Amino acid sequence: MTSCARLALGVLVLAVLGIIAGTVWIAATVREETVVAHPYEEGLRHHSERAAGARCDLADGPCTERLDGGGEVTLEIGPRPIRTMTDLAVRVDLGGAGERDQVAVAFAMPGMEMGRNEVWLAPSGAGRFGGGAVLVRCPSGRRDWMAEVRVERPGTAPRTARFQLGVRE
């Protein structure tokens, strides 16, 4: 091997090592902390809870969930069975005083763009709100929906809760 070939091979090896070192340095500077200490185990726990039906399904009746900013909210949708392309009554109960609150319910299908579907509910008593909604039929035939209740009060951050919802065609 000639000295010129050895020099070219040495430069190539140094360039590859430089690229590897640069990649490691960049990866170390943009690394994000994990949100969950043990993501694999947490995913297994979440999956087993869903499979066991640990969460309430609005298709079976009213459900109560914790609002992410504190408090609880009960959501009820009827008539049951819940069907697509029909008028649905949506009721929210915040469990007491809430005359300054404004409540919206947004419907979405996880992983599928179904268009914006959000309704603002009118006060119907102390901490109670009601209104109407229509869920569209998914062209793929899926029937799993999520309902997100958003409670807004002037001067505070919005609070939200999510609910599972299974519909019939």
What are the key terms here?
169 residues, alpha+beta, Immunoglobulin-like, eight-stranded antiparallel sheet, 2 helices, 8 strands, 24% helix, elongated
Describe the protein in words.
- This protein is of the alpha+beta class.
- It is built from two helices and eight strands, in the order H-H-E-E-E-E-E-E-E-E.
- It is 24% helix and 33% strand.
- It has an eight-stranded antiparallel sheet, with no helix packed on it.
- Strand 5 and strand 6 form a beta hairpin.
- The relative contact order is 0.17.
- The model has no long low-confidence stretch (mean pLDDT 85).
Shape: elongated
CATH topology of one domain, which one? Immunoglobulin-like
Proportion of residues in extended strands: 25-35%
Write down the Rg: 26 Å
What is the level 1 CATH name of one domain?
A: Mainly Beta
Could you outline the blueprint of secondary structure elements for this entry?
Blueprint: H1 3-30, H2 39-51, E1 63-66, E2 72-78, E3 88-93, E4 102-108, E5 118-125, E6 128-133, E7 144-152, E8 159-166
Antiparallel strand pairs: 1-2, 2-3, 3-6, 4-5, 4-7, 5-6, 7-8
Brief write-up:
The protein is of the alpha+beta class. Helices cover 24% and strands 33% of the residues. The chain has helices at residues 3-30, 39-51, and strands at residues 63-66, 72-78, 88-93, 102-108, 118-125, 128-133, 144-152, 159-166.
